[in-house]
Amino acid sequence: MKKLNLMLIVLCIAVLLTAAAAKADTLVGMANPWTETDADGLMQTLGVQFNVPEGAENVIYRMMESEKIAEMQFTLNDMPFTARIKPAGIEIEDISGMFYDWEYEESAKGEFTRRWFQEKLMKAHDGEDTVEVFLWFDIVPGLTYSLSTKAPDLDGFDIIAIAEAVWHQAQGEA
Q1: Residue 142 pLDDT exceeds 70
Q2: What is the mean pLDDT of the chain?
Q3: CB 70 within 8 A of CB 63
Q4: Which residues pair with 79 in a beta bridge?
Q5: Distance of alpha carbon 18 from alpha carbon 25, whole angstroms
Q6: Over the chain, what HEC string results?
Q7: Cα distance between residue 46 and residue 63, in whole Å
Q8: How far apart are CA 73 and CA 96, in angstroms?
Q9: Same domain, 77 and 15
Q10: Is the distance from CB of 9 to CB of 15 less than 8 angstroms?
């Protein structure tokens, strides 16, 4: 009886190890959807571009070609930022990749800047950090943009000013 119990235990362990190894192979084999590129690569592949804000450092460009999303990560005044662009339909879309229970949301049609058709400002707290996301939709080229940051203290910070510095006009002034 002891031998049978021991064999069952060994068999169960072997099955669990085999299942864990199969799961690990699946996870390791999963492709990263983001591809690092440069500003020219974004323009050639997706037809979009960002302006780099004055004083920005550690600028990294990436794209998720399957979703047609361009991304620029950078640091400005020791704060991390992620800007994204995606062709969109006829309304704003949250492409920020930031998934929070937003404590503050304000939507408008050109009220923040009077430059873009639709805009949305969102804020949340994540432990000791504050998260801010600004979304905007430029109707003429049909592009949705997002700019996000996360820092311990964002009081008095103007994310919209950074968004205006990141935005690259895709058409002539109206």
Answers
A1: yes
A2: 82
A3: yes
A4: 76
A5: 11
A6: CHHHHHHHHHHHHHHHHHHHHHHHHHHHCCCCCCEEECHHHHHHHHCCCCCCCCCCEEEEEEEEHHHCEEEEEEEECCEEEEEEEEECCCCCCCCCCCCCCCCEEEEECCCCCCCCCEEEEEEEEECCEEEEEEEEEECCCCEEEEEEEEECCCCCCCHHHHHHHHCCCCCCCC
A7: 8
A8: 12
A9: no
A10: no
pLDDT at 50: 95
Residue with tokens 């949250």: 94
**How many domains are contained in the chain?**
2
With cut-offs at 50, 70 and 90, classify the pLDDT of residue 153: confident
- The verdict on 8 and 84 lying in the same domain is no
CATH number for the domain harbouring residue 147: 3.40.1000
Q: Is the pLDDT of residue 173 over 50?
A: no
Average pLDDT over residues 16-30: 57
User: What are the φ/ψ torsions at residue 129 (nearest 5 degrees)?
Assistant: -100, 155
* Same domain flag for 84 and 5: no
Domain housing 109? 35-166
- 172 is a domain residue: no
Phi, psi at 166, each rounded to 5°: -80, -35
